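Please fill in the sequence for the structure shown.

STRUCTURE ENCODING:
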């Protein structure tokens, strides 16, 4: 799985941020580095990705000291926070996840498309997290 695009609105100190993480030809990059001085938002970007993908991947662990609470998630002065992660899943990875789901008799289905968008928002919507 590779992260193609990240969109953050009103998450912690970030008002709006869009990051295109593809190369010049629009392909997923093998690696992406977040580099910058202290207090520029690197950890906030990682927290946003964890908030968005954690529930989708059933990864409850977050960095110590960070909790998904309104005072820590929603940017001061805003009423909601939204994070969208657009992911690329190679066919072999989709097939492997489908096989694991089948063997473990999981009730969920893996994505059928190679590009999916996972949307997380706070406060939570009635439909919950949108996995498209």
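FILLED IN BY: designer on duty
SEQUENCE:
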């Amino acid at each position: 799985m590779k992260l193609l695009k990240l969109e953050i609105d009103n998450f912690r100190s970030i008002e709006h941020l869009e990051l295109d993480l593809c190369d010049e030809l629009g392909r997923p990059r093998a690696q992406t580095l977040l580099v910058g001085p202290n207090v520029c938002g690197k950890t906030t970007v990682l927290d946003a990705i964890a908030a968005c993908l954690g529930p989708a991947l059933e990864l409850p662990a977050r960095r110590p000291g960070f909790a998904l609470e309104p005072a820590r998630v929603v940017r001061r002065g805003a009423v909601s926070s939204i994070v969208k992660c657009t992911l690329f899943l190679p066919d072999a990875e989709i097939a492997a996840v489908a096989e694991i789901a089948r063997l473990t008799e999981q009730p969920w289905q893996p994505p059928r498309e190679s590009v999916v968008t996972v949307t997380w928002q706070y406060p939570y919507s009635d439909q919950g997290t949108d996995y498209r």
